[in-house]
Amino acid sequence: MKTQTKVNNEPTLFNRSRFKPTGRPLFINKSKILNEIEKLGKEESLVSLRNSVFSLEDELRSVKTDKAGILNIDSNGDAITMSQKYIFDQLDQIAESQTIDRAKYYVERFEKAITQVKTSKINDINLNRWKEYDDIRTDSLWVIDKRDSTGVHTAGYWGNFIPQIPNQMLRRYTKKGDWVLDPFVGCGTTLIECQRLGRNGIGVELQESIAKKAREYISFERNEHSVITEVVNGDSATINFSEVLKKHNKKSVQLLVMHPPYFDIIKFSKNPNDLSNAPSVEKFLEMMNTIVGNAGSVLEKGRYFVLVIGDKYSKGEWIPLGFLTMNKILQRGFLLKSIIVKNFEETTGKRNQKELRRYRALVGGFYIFKHEYIFVFKKR
């Protein structure tokens, strides 16, 4: 049995200056960092190990202090990229261990994070370096201050998807090269994120003019991964998705993303097949059910379906449109994996009507909508 010797009374012999690592990426010489980690694993006491860790951290602060050449990548070097914060967090965890055995366990885990890649079947997240993905959300409450407006993303189309949602969902539920289907593609937000992240995307838009705009926006976004994106002008209730995929020699998609109209809150067109023109909630649910069935038929078994939808207030009554739609999808046999509540402050409508909305809420005895739902389903 291994003995674990605590050395709480041993002094810390290395004094670190104040330093706050950032999330910026560092280009690391793999063989040299592994050589330094191997040295850590051979230390026999916590004092010597801690001092070795602190010396290594000092070298990693900048090229000027890097005596081992870990940050100096030559043309033939075996380079890897890791965030500065992640590296320092791992080294700090080693240094803060209370026993030598625990410290060496963390050393071995850090070595594994550098040498081995462990991913799941549905995404590219390296589980051996899971702490590096601190920008990927895992809780069920999302408070988003403002939409991502980088690149070609635009808020000019009222009711448009905020890019952060497809970005998160693509990273959680797809791998590079996977295929994504968005039956309500609008101005192309999902496909823009597909192009950025190296996923192939197909979007369907009912209005020809909007479909044209989507193609234009997407064409202006860099396609450094050389993926395929296609915007189809048509009705997602009747379009033959199998035929669309067949053109690309595919039979299924790995992620289904839907951001439909929230019934008649915003009128997007005069087309009777537009969900925003449904004559009743019941008809809306019927039309939505048809689209889910049609698009869901090409979703690969065991893969995910993301629905973003909000509720509606009409004639003094709160209509739980999100949960009514959720129940329709569950009746189709999908498995509910998560319900995320998303609050987004900066929309054009909210920005211009804050005082009026508050007055109406006080008069009408209701509470102002500040959330939408992100339902995550899995195809059985």
TrEMBL record:
Residues 131-214, 253-379 form the DNA methylase N-4/N-6 domain. The keyword Methyltransferase applies. The keyword Acetylation does not apply. Its EC number is 2.1.1.-. Gene3D superfamilies: Vaccinia Virus protein VP39 (3.40.50.150). GO terms for biological process: methylation. It is an enzyme of class 2 (transferase). Keywords: Methyltransferase, Transferase. Pfam families: N6_N4_Mtase. One of its GO terms (molecular function) is DNA binding. Belongs to the N(4)/N(6)-methyltransferase family. This is Methyltransferase. It comes from candidate division Kazan bacterium. The lineage of its organism: Bacteria, Bacteria division Kazan-3B-28.
